[in-house]
């Protein structure tokens, strides 16, 4: 079926199980499989580097379906290397270490609202399980809304913007403030000086904004939800991480970016293990060979993991499948942060790919780790938590998929592959370890 038609991949993608089917196919047929008439998926660390760190390979034409207009390109769908490099150059100064440090105060403000909300729930509903997927979604969107637009969404406290479109209002608000207002992602270039009623411009920036907001919020929400799921089911890891956080920091206010947070090696390992087991981008990031103007260069074949790739072939590595390849991650379905700290961890790190690699790799990686570390550290400093309602039975999978065994691992945080990962839970019960109250309590 896959040899004859793209329907094979489309069918499993529509059922949000393509990452699971890809892993199963690799287990059955080997490290390279055919997933469409011109699509090859690899499952080795060498292929990962051959593809994503190759100057002669770019994003596939499949990304063009996200174009607003034929000649309109964003950071996500620009195939041309020159256009993409220009956009990354504009973005670079805003997501570098200095800008991240400058934004940290705002990040703390949103995280403290999150802490206060949990403290209030501990007081008012001490035995009620909390859906962490929902809570983390509101938190991470609040952070990215301010980082991208400087706009106070306040989703954690106000339901106004939770269920309707707000992008247009955010765009118009930022335009009205002008290019000299608070530095954020919206003004990536000083040429963006247009009136707030310019429909064409607003529609053009909407697609870019959607990508930036999603990239910075959905991925963080997935990782945080997955990590708390695994901590709630792995007591040894939970206790070890809690001990590290509470021994490193004397107060919640002392949890800030810098040396002490960076020295929390087990925290970093737990974050990486959650990203490995339940990657926010679980699927295959398709690539293809660039059409070279120099025919002599074009004549030289592209080789991936020892295989000569015909021109026009879509190639890629499925992140979920590679992250569960027993060659690099023994006992791959066990939450084991120590695998990133033990002797011989280099093999695992070479196959670890939650942010992609090369010229198309995530530019906000450092900000992501800072945000994740701050949230986890502050929550564990303030609270103890236990599992609430069991997630088993909440997946909503049909009997067919259950019989196939693709969702049978109840100790794996289930993600639904729709480019980014959709998810639910975990449902956790929190207890304040210091007897704090939610209204006005100091964090």
Automatic annotation (TrEMBL):
InterPro entries: Cyt_P450, Cyt_P450_CS, Cyt_P450_E_grp-I, Cyt_P450_sf, Cytochrome_P450_monoxygenase. Keywords: Heme, Iron, Metal-binding, Monooxygenase, Oxidoreductase. It holds the Pfam family p450. The keyword Transmembrane helix does not apply. Coiled coil: none annotated. GO terms for molecular function: heme binding; iron ion binding; monooxygenase activity; oxidoreductase activity, acting on paired donors, with incorporation or reduction of molecular oxygen. Heme binds at residue 362. Its cofactor is heme. Belongs to the cytochrome P450 family. This is Cytochrome P450. It comes from Xylaria multiplex.
């Amino acid at each position: 079926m896959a040899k004859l038609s793209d329907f094979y991949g489309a069918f499993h993608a529509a059922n949000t199980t393509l990452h699971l089917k890809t892993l199963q196919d690799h287990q059955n047929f080997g490290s390279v499989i055919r997933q469409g008439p011109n699509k090859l998926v690899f499952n080795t660390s060498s292929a990962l580097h051959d593809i994503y760190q190759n100057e002669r390979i770019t994003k596939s034409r499949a990304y063009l379906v996200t174009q607003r207009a034929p000649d309109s390109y964003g950071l996500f769908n620009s195939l041309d290397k020159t256009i993409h490099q220009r956009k990354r150059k504009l973005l670079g100064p805003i997501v570098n270490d200095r800008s991240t440090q400058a934004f940290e105060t705002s990040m703390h403000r949103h995280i403290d609202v999150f802490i206060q909300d949990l403290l209030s729930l501990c007081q008012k509903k001490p035995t009620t399980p909390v859906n962490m997927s929902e809570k983390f979604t509101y938190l991470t969107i609040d952070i990215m809304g301010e980082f991208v637009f400087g706009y106070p969404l306040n989703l954690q406290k106000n339901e106004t913007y939770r269920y309707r479109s707000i992008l247009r209002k955010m765009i118009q608000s930022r335009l009205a403030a002008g290019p000299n207002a608070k530095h954020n992602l919206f003004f990536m270039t000083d040429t963006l000086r247009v009136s707030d009623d310019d429909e064409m411009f607003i529609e053009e920036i909407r697609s870019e904004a959607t990508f930036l907001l999603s990239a910075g919020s959905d991925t963080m929400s997935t990782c945080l939800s997955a990590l708390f799921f695994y901590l709630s089911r792995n007591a040894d890891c939970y206790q070890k991480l809690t001990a590290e956080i509470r021994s490193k920091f004397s107060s919640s206010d002392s949890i800030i970016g810098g040396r002490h947070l960076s020295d929390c090696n087990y925290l970093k390992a737990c974050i990486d293990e959650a990203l490995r087991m339940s990657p926010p981008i679980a699927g295959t990031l398709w690539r293809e060979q660039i059409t070279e103007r120099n025919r002599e260069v074009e004549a030289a074949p592209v080789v991936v993991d020892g295989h000569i790739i015909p021109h026009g072939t879509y190639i890629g590595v499925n992140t979920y499948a590679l992250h569960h390849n027993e060659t690099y991650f023994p006992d791959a379905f066990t939450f084991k942060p120590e695998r990133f700290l033990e002797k011989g961890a280099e093999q695992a790190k070479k196959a670890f790919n939650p942010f992609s690699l090369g010229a198309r790799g995530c530019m906000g990686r450092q900000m992501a780790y800072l945000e994740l570390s701050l949230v986890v550290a502050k929550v564990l400093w303030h609270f103890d938590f236990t599992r609430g309602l069991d997630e088993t039975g909440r997946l909503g999978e049909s009997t067919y998929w259950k019989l196939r065994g693709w969702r049978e691992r109840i100790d794996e945080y289930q993600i639904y592959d729709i480019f980014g990962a959709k998810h639910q839970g975990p449902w956790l019960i929190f207890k304040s370890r210091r007897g704090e109250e939610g209204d006005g309590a100091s964090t």
